[in-house]
Amino acid sequence: MTEAKVQARPGGRSARVRAAVHRAVGELLADEAAEALTIPAIAARAGVHATTVYRRWGSVAQLLADVATSRFSGDLVVPDTGSLVGDLERWMSDVATDLADPDVLALMRATIGSGPEGGSACITDRHAQLGAIIDRERARGGKVPSVERAIDALLGPLYYRAVFGGEAASSEWARGLVATLMGICDLPQ
Fold first, then answer.
1. Following CA atoms 16, 20, 21, 23 in sequence, which dihedral angle do they give, to the nearest 10 degrees?
2. CA 134, CA 132: separation in Å to the nearest integer?
3. Contact status, residue 162 vs residue 99, Cβ threshold 8 Å
4. 62's torsion region: left (phi>0), alpha (psi -120 to 50) or beta?
5. Under 8 Å between Cβ of 59 and 65
6. Which helix (H) or strand (E) is 157 found in, with range?
7. Mean pLDDT in the chain?
């Protein structure tokens, strides 16, 4: 009796389709308004049949949530400078830089506008990163704000400026939010 030989497909068709569809979403958002995103347009740009996209994601909102979750998960390293202020300043600078990217903003705006799960897809990983920074400082014995207070003081203004403002926040402005949270100084203008 001979054993059946199984060939692994590196990445497989599923991974290739997912990558092509995610890339197509990014390209379409860069070229056109978010309202132009339709399953047929995305499928055509990705080189797959529209039923493939419908079967895997069901709707543009679910697809955008998947793309955003993929894009915003693990892309920033949680710094360890040895102090809470240093960690938060470096992290906020990195987040501000990320949010200044026009492609990131287009994806965020489209995802948030697509439905209730959209906002969560854009911020879940950021909340986890912020929680990790605060938990590490707590383990070092330092005085820390609650994660909720840090989210409100740091991410709230930064994301508001990115999504609704006319210009992205600078790294310096983002670091100023840390100073305000920590009660060190007033927010720079």
1. 140
2. 5
3. yes
4. alpha
5. no
6. helix 156-164
7. 84
Q: Is the dihedral of CA 153, 157, 162, 167 positive or negative?
A: negative
Tracing tokens 């287009």 back to the chain, one arrives at 106
Amino acid residing at 113 = G
pLDDT in tens, 66-76: 888 888 776 66
- In the chain, the amino acid numbered 9 is R
Q: If pLDDT is split at 50, 70 and 90, which confidence band does 84 have?
A: very high
| Strand, coil or helix: 6 | coil
In percent, how much of the chain has pLDDT > 70? 89
Place of tokens 């911020």: 123
**Separation of alpha carbons 130 and 147, rounded Å:** 7
Residue of 124 and 93 predicted with greater confidence: 93
Residues 6+ positions from 57 with CB-CB distance below 8 Å: 21, 63, 66
- The rounded distance, in Å, linking the Cα atoms of 59 and 56 is 9
The closest alpha carbon to 25, from 14, 41, 13, belongs to: 41
